[in-house]
Write a structure and sequence with these properties.
The chain is of the alpha/beta class and 403 residues long. It contains 13 helices and 12 strands. The strands form 3 sheets. The chain has a 7-stranded parallel beta sheet with strand order 3-2-1-4-5-6-10, sandwiched between helices. The chain has a 3-stranded parallel beta sheet with strand order 8-11-12. Bound molecules: NADP nicotinamide-adenine-dinucleotide phosphate.
Length: 403
């Protein structure tokens, strides 16, 4: 496979997009409307009417284009409803004649529903590849994840992945399996692997669901609305945590769409050298909630679950998988994003300061957090005292008071 960018930009005239009713799909549709002249066919489930489908796309388009949505833009979007059984997707070929590209962004992110992960991430992809062959599309773009490699010791290659030592969740396994289906299908393809998306780098605007960092912040918001926790116990790995601003994602997706050659796997990640760690993120959160003391443990198994406050115990249990993922040293090859940047891509890397913009917006727009400040600000100490627990000391540590 060529390791150089295309000499001519890619273009298609009728693009089928799956997952357009979701967060990333809406960003992609808005970006394609903005940067191509193609008609976009959104393949959605029957529950979505056109108004609901268009609302987030319109909002994103107006932000990117900086002018108002028009009837002409509206007319470029078609909606086609999925059959009840995803196995019938190839039967849509007659209705979709003229589609010359598929961007497959639908996916299941429910870590715990293995049957659904397999059905959506693997089988739906397989059925779409059959459709792609019927339609003789010029290209199949698969939106995977930067974490599809599973736990590996070396940097994630921009290539087909080998089987890892283990997977954090069945989500990563099914995304890797889907990548393999795409790459071995004989349909021209590009695989794009974004890391975890967060709000925009300039204002923190976020239009996604409670995934990634927002899942963490919402869990902490619930803890804060319950009471003031004078002390807090958690795990805060110092490994770089790759998260990606949604505006950077859109800019990189547009550039990749035009310039990445067939057969490429692109790790769409922020520069790992300036990525904050989970420890940085916790420290930043405690600047807001201001407990008197924070106990940081090396691993979740080191936390004395029985003696900490039951709501913190419940929170840590809920956040366990994400904390485990953050404890792994994820490394990525970044050849494609670097080439796009060298050729003029404007891409804002994620730093602790840009994540702060997102956290500030989250806190400002949370009624529960505002109530927390009005009820508890008088109890805030100057700054939380951070205590790093050494597992060797744990045996000798006195019983911890529950706040
Ligand atoms: N969010 C991130 O940070 C992130 C990062 C890297 C990669 N990704 C990838 O981006 C893709 C979209 O993620 P997202 O954050 O946008 O998730 P999302 O907001 O939950 O959207 C998921 C999309 O997939 C569709 N879908 C789910 N189950 C389906 C089914 N059984 N049949 C048909 N459509 C189904 C949903 O349709 P309904 O609206 O009808 O449910 C929705 O359009 C996923 O493939 C994910 O792996 C996301």
């Amino acid at each position: 496979m060529s390791r150089t960018l295309r000499s001519e930009p890619f273009s298609a005239s009728r693009i089928l997009v799956t997952g357009a009713t979701g967060y990333v799909g809406a960003l992609i549709v808005a970006s394609l409307l903005r940067d191509t002249n193609a008609r976009i066919v959104c393949l959605t489930r029957a529950a979505h009417d056109r108004t609901a489908l268009l609302a987030p796309i319109k909002e994103e388009w107006e932000t990117q284009a900086r002018y108002r949505w028009s009837a002409a833009v509206d007319a470029r979007i078609e909606q086609v409803v999925l059959p009840n059984d995803l196995a019938d997707v190839p039967n849509l070929a007659a209705r979709l004649e003229g589609v010359d590209e598929i961007v497959h962004c639908a996916g299941c992110l429910d870590y715990y529903d293995v049957a659904k992960l397999q059905a959506v991430n693997v089988f739906y992809t397989a059925h779409l590849l059959v459709l792609a062959k019927h339609l003789k599309v010029k290209r199949f773009v698969y939106v995977s994840t930067a974490y599809s490699s599973g736990y590996q010791d070396q940097p994630t290659p921009e290539d087909l992945l080998t089987e890892p030592q283990g997977d954090p969740t069945q989500y990563t396994r099914t995304k890797r399996e889907a990548e393999r289906l795409v790459a071995t299908s004989h349909v021209p393809f590009v695989v794009i692997r974004p890391s975890i998306l967060i709000g925009t780098s300039d204002t923190g605007r976020y239009s996604g669901k409670r995934y990634g960092l927002y899942q963490q912040w919402m869990g902490l918001e619930r803890l804060a609305c319950d009471r003031y926790h004078e002390e807090f116990h958690t795990v805060a790995p110092r490994m770089p945590l790759n998260v990606l601003h949604q505006d950077s994602f859109c800019e990189a997706f547009k550039a990749a769409y035009r310039w990445i050659p067939h057969g490429a796997f692109m790790n769409l990640v922020s520069d790992p050298h300036c990525s904050p760690s989970m420890r940085d993120l916790w420290d930043m959160w405690f600047e807001v909630t201001r407990p008197a003391r924070v106990y940081y443990y090396p691993t979740i198994d080191d936390v004395p679950m029985k003696s900490i406050h039951m709501r913190q115990r419940a929170y840590l249990t809920f956040a366990q998988v994400n904390l485990e993922i953050a404890s792994h040293h994820w490394q990525f090859e970044t050849g494609w994003i670097q080439q796009l940047r060298d050729n003029g891509l404007r891409f804002i890397d994620t730093t602790i300061d840009t994540v702060r913009i997102c956290q500030d917006r989250f806190v400002r727009s949370s009624d529960q957090m505002q109530k927390y400040f009005s009820e508890h600000a008088h109890r805030f100490s100057q700054a939380a005292r951070c205590i790093d627990i050494d597992p060797a000391q744990l045996q000798q540590q006195p019983a911890i008071a529950t706040a």
